[in-house]
Amino acid sequence: MAAAAPRLRISEIFHSLQGESTRVGLPTVFVRLTGCPLRCVWCDTEYAFTGGKMRELEDILAEVAGYGARHVCVTGGEPLAQKPCLTLLTALCDAGYSVSLETSGALDVSEVDARVSKIMDLKAPGSGEVDKNLWSNLAHITAQDEIKVVVADEADYQWTRAVLAEHNLTSRCTVLLSPVQGKLDPQDLAAWILRDRLAVRMQLQMHRIIWGERTGV
Q: Using CB atoms within 10 A as the burial measure, which of 35, 89, 96, 152 is most buried?
């Protein structure tokens, strides 16, 4: 008997400009998977924790193709919480897309297709989920990947500095630092980075600057 076709629970698929990472500004198709085992206190996609619709892999690929974009970002929630996400990532790569994966860093990334650019969070203490960091994931980070830390205050920033130094991360990949919107003044984060000559890239969420807080952007 043939294996059942992969199905994933999808929160939304949409075409927008990438608002974060080194791909910022690029027209991108976003495939947002439903579900996440974490509950970061500053999460801006809580609507993706539940709901969504089960969809066949071929149906997802067909919708992505309809937008005619080169870049695809698989995100969540936490996309790796659904095992068929690995199959989706490989299928997107096979179809010729430039694929990125936004992941919390709490789930194993070792089986992610090597062609995918992993944008992996490290959860600082201010997230409320620092204990969920799966540190073994750092062994699977390459130069094509990126580490992201969302910073809520100066304590988070100092924690980040220590982690980056301990694991020599800024020499291994691009490191992205973001302020928690509405909690940390971006000027403060910028000042700390410049003061310490930290070899990171500061980023703001461009999509929220353009469109505000709404889905589908």
A: 89
